[in-house]
Amino acid sequence: MSGSKKWVLGLIVLAFIVPLLRPVFPEVVSDYRLFLVSTMIIASIAVLGLNLLTGFNGQFSLGHGAFYAVGAYTAAILMDKLNVPYWATIPAAAIVCFIVGYLFGLPALKLEGHYLALATFALALAVPQILKYKWLEGLTGGVQGIVLMKPEVPFGLPLSEDQWLYYFCLIVMIVLFWAAANLLNSRSGRAMMAIRDQYMAADTMGIDTALYKTVTFGISAAYTGIAGALSASAIAFVAPDSFGIFLSIKFLIGLVVGGIGSLLGSVLGGIFYVLVDNSAQSLTQFIRNDLGLPFDLSAYTVFGVLLIAIIYLMPMGIAGGLYMAYRKLRGARA
């Protein structure tokens, strides 16, 4: 087993053990913090979906918040209207979002660069409005959305709802990242990256670029849709206004900050996105109350400042910066 695989396995084991230490460290391993980590896991899966499309296939998207919304509403409607178990909504959301992404990818074949970005931007703008449409209110709940119940702990396990949700999200994340790693190391993954690196050369070598681009769009949408389905179960509520255009932009910021074209970057990007989103209000209160400065910082302000700083200091993202630091440290030791 290589050193990197040992590190990954060690982190997975640690992630499973930490919640069990709650009786020893009740304040550190609280339900709120486990819920926060669960949202980081969900965001990491969503960023991974965008990474597969943009980082590994070279197609630029500003509309992955739409696929996130489709996945969330697929899960919510199945649970609310048909009493489908929450775990069964995950594959259903993946299938629905794959179909939507594949169908959207077909006309997108004729678009490149900023034209594709504008098309996906339009999709992200349209989906929340479609969810509010009065003819769909009986299904989507309209502006009010759908209120759900949090997943119950199965098999009588001695866990809280947030502990079980954390484990459920963690298991889904491990499976999805394992599948993505295997995909990228396969012949299909090499074809995806060949299209990203040199489209004309890949086409000349006999790679079916149209097929790979549409399938990649579908797989990317499926990953993001699964994240949306998990968020519906975690938050127990979906509403159209939760899936505005800024959600797609946050996914993109998380991808750039974490590291484009890196599986580790997807995890770091998801953590960054949730931490900044949740700490902006606390930072504003600290500046106004403790420092006495008349400033209000929104999450977008903090996102912007940190994004500029990280791009300046680490142009390849946090994952790339860590890799370069590791190489320098290894060279210094040698």
Automatic annotation (TrEMBL):
Q: List keywords of the entry alphabetically.
A: Cell membrane, Membrane, Transmembrane, Transmembrane helix
Q: What is its main location?
A: membrane
Answer whether the UniProt record assigns the keyword Acyltransferase to this protein: no
Where are the bilayer-spanning segments?
36-53, 60-79, 85-106, 113-131, 164-184, 215-239, 251-276, 297-326
Task: Classify the protein's membrane topology as the record does.
Answer: Multi-pass membrane protein
* Pfam families per record: BPD_transp_2 (PF02653)
Q: Where in the cell is it found?
A: Cell membrane
Q: Does the keyword DNA-binding apply?
A: no
This one is known as: Branched-chain amino acid ABC transporter permease
